[in-house]
Amino acid sequence: RTILCATDCSKNSEAALKMANALSKKLESRLLVLHVFDLNVALLTPLSITYAKMEKEAFEENRKKLVDFYKERLGQLKNSTKLRLIVKENAIINDAIIDAVTEFDASMIIMGTKGRSALKDMIIGSNTMGMIKKSPCPFLMVPPTADKFSIARITYASDFEETDIHAIDWLV
């Protein structure tokens, strides 16, 4: 089992990271923490040296941002096969998340209800809403106000569709 936690490293996604961490420990699952960024360089071509340099710097900067975000919320990174921090570049965040689900065979996605642009999307962020519609696996939204992360029970509501059997199988 693999849980993918998608984060923009904002205060609003902190609760989702903590929930993903608690759930991965409870289920003894591998945890992938994914940060997707957009390399916004409209006037450069991917073949230019400047683009290659900017891309390398952007990956390094975003990798550091993700590592710092993780350490500040959950402590030091442990040398473990159960944890992996991943940085990807893609202008379409949901596509990058779905690609990561496929690439790493993730069985669940966890995201915050709102990202960095919380004022723009008052109730549910646009990336979160997009993932609700496109997610190829079970999806858990965590509001930024969530502060209880011990998991004793998991409740699953079902209308007894065929796809529910797979979700229940995964949880059990």
Fold topology:
Layout: E1 2-7, H1 14-27, E2 30-37, H2 49-74, E3 83-89, H3 93-104, E4 108-112, H4 126-134, E5 139-142, H5 162-171
Parallel strand pairs: 1-2, 1-4, 2-3, 4-5
Helix pairs in contact: 1-2, 3-4
Describe this structure in words.
The chain is an alpha/beta fold and 172 residues long. Helices cover 41% and strands 17% of the residues. The chain contains five helices and five strands; from the N terminus they run E-H-E-H-E-H-E-H-E-H. Strands 3-2-1-4-5 form a five-stranded parallel beta sheet, sandwiched between helices. Helix 4 links the parallel strand 4 and strand 5. Helix 1 packs across helix 2 and helix 3 crosses helix 4. The longest helix has 26 residues. It is globular. The protein starts with a strand and ends with a helix. About 3% of the residues have low confidence.
The number of helical segments is: 5
Poorly predicted runs: 118-123
Q: Describe the oligomeric state of these chains in a short phrase.
A: single chain
| Average pLDDT for all residues | 83
Order of H and E elements? EHEHEHEHEH
According to DSSP, the number of beta strands is 5
Radius of gyration: 17 Å
- Note the overall shape: globular
What's the arrangement of strands in the largest beta sheet? 3-2-1-4-5
Q: What does the main sheet amount to?
A: 5 strands, parallel
Helix-strand makeup class: alpha/beta
Distance between the termini: 12 Å
